[in-house]
Amino acid sequence: MSQIGTFVEAAPYVTGAAVAARYSVPLVRYYRADPDTRHSIKSARRARRSWKTFCEMAGMTVKQNPGWIAQATNGGKKLEPHILIPPVKTQPDRFGFTVYSRALPGLGLDDWDKNRKYIADQWGVRRIKLWQPQPGYINARAFLREPLEATVPSDLTTIAGQPLVKPGSLRADSDIVLMYSEDGEPITVNLAKSSHGAIQGRTRSGKSITVNTLLAHAALMSDVQTVIIDPNLGAVAPWWRTAHTVNADISPDGPTEILRAIRAEMDRRQGVFWAKRTDKITEFSPELPLILLVIDEVSNFTNWGDKKKAEAFRAELQAVASQGAKFGIRLWLLGQKLEAAVLSTSTRTNLTSRISHQVDTMEDFLHLFPDGRDLEVNAADRAMPQGIGIAAVHGMTTPVRARSVYLPTEHCWTIADAIVDALGEVRPLPAPKLTLAKEAAERSA
């Protein structure tokens, strides 16, 4: 059989394989997506299909006369101009979809902006954000859901709370999505690449949900040791069995000793600088882990009644805040308001990642965001819903309004259970396990 015959016989199979590949990938992506992203995929497809008709009706077209070669080879007959429309590609996500397009001669961003309302109606979206990433290109962010109104569950568990991430599978350089901005952009923290941070907010403002996400990711990292100081037990309780060090003392004695131990570890790590000829530890391992130190209700210790003990705590805290980052220490401080009476200016200066949930007054907001009066957003808003805050994490130039990823405390317990099952527990819970269900069953029998 000739090669031509072989190619002819194989052509239908090759074509079928190409068609299957063309449509199977989107189908797999669709069925693996969450319900909100599926809705966005269908909406993006409808937007692409109706785009040509809309552009013709809205006048978003450009006439292009045929070239002289086409005219010369057409037997003397006049050719009609080509009608061009802006080309579009779409990328769906859980909040909507992003459209990527190119500007045409005489049809640029201003024309898109003029027709913004009609485009939103045609696409069936709530609003559209337009911008030019570079000359000649136009991006349109179409929102089917407002990110600040949407509850985004954590990727660490199912909706029912079953763990999805294997203990020890994450690393210190894994991005942690803490929040989503009002434009649907993820607010991420990378422990290996960032420095210290702070979270403030009044009671029931959503502060605990935000720190839950931070601690849950850290607990699943193989090269991170978590140290939690929490006099109220709110943040530390789920991780009591898994964290490297925990402390629930009300007085600053125990926390001060922990800070001194961390400073001793900093001194020990100075040898790494000489061995690796560097001035900052950037690579971590189980043998040389990143240490995440989280202190909740820090004002309880800095404003302790015994001034001598409070000053001792402040001094150790300042030493860790100013020098700890280069030794692989990441300090995160939590409180209802991190004012000057709680944290010194020098300590706050080292907190480069800052999140403020709802606070009582503008002055409270200014403690973390000194230029807050010049911002378009602030957290001194009594109408601000739980879970929403103002965030400016490492690498961000402008604070934005954002909503925390939803990871309730109950789900943190299931993650901790999975860690204990896989790796064992560091220490038992301070209270015996409740057996109320078992006792009730025995009584009923």
Automatic annotation (TrEMBL):
Transmembrane annotation, as ranges: none
GO MF term list: ATP binding; DNA binding
Binding site for ATP: G201, R202, T203, R204, S205, G206, K207, S208
SUPFAM superfamilies hit by this protein: P-loop containing nucleoside triphosphate hydrolases
Gene3D superfamilies cross-referenced by the UniProt entry: P-loop containing nucleotide triphosphate hydrolases
Alphabetized UniProt keyword annotations: ATP-binding, Nucleotide-binding, Plasmid
Pfam family membership, one: FtsK_SpoIIIE
Domain FtsK: start-end pairs: 184-366
Classification via InterPro entries: FtsK/SpoIIIE/SftA (IPR050206), FtsK_dom (IPR002543), P-loop_NTPase (IPR027417)
Presence of keyword Metal-binding: no
PANTHER family, alphabetized: DNA TRANSLOCASE FTSK, SPORULATION PROTEIN RELATED
Protein's name according to its UniProt entry: Tra protein
Organism per entry: Streptomyces sp. X335
Lineage: Bacteria, Bacillati, Actinomycetota, Actinomycetes, Kitasatosporales
